[in-house]
Amino acid sequence: DWNMPDYVEEAIGRIRSEVGSDEVILGLSGGVDSSVVAALLHRAIGTQLTCVFVDNGLLRLNEAEQVMKTFADNLGVKVIHVDASGEFMKHLTGVIDPEQKRKIIGREFVEVFQRESAKLPNAKWLAQGTIYPDVIESAGAKNNKAHAIKSHHNVGGLPETLHLKLLEPLRELFKDEVRELGIALGLPHDMVYRHPFPGPGLGVRILGEVKFEYAELLRRADAIFIEELRASGWYEKTSQAFAVFLPVKSVGVMGDGRTYDYVVALRAVQTQDFMTAHWAELPYTLLGKVSNRIINEVRGINRVVYDISGKPPATIEWE
Ligand code: XMP
Question: How far is the CA of 126 from the centre of ligand 1 (A)?
Answer without folding.
Answer: 24
